[in-house]
Specification:
Elements: H1 3-12, H2 18-30
Helix pairs in contact: 1-2
């Protein structure tokens, strides 16, 4: 299970707001994480599947 999936699950479980999940993703990417380019609403929409 990857970090993006974990962030999405945390949003679905109401542990994080989707904006906070995206901020965490952006921080990982800015720090050199090899992550895909995502839209700002990725964590805010749909299910985690």
């Amino acid at each position: 299970m990857g970090s993006l999936r974990l962030l999405k699950l945390a949003v679905e479980a109401a542990l994080l707001k989707c904006t906070d999940a995206f901020a965490g993703y952006a921080e990982m990417r800015d720090s050199g994480g090899f992550l895909p380019q995502l839209e700002a609403d990725f964590f805010c929409s749909g299910d985690a599947g």
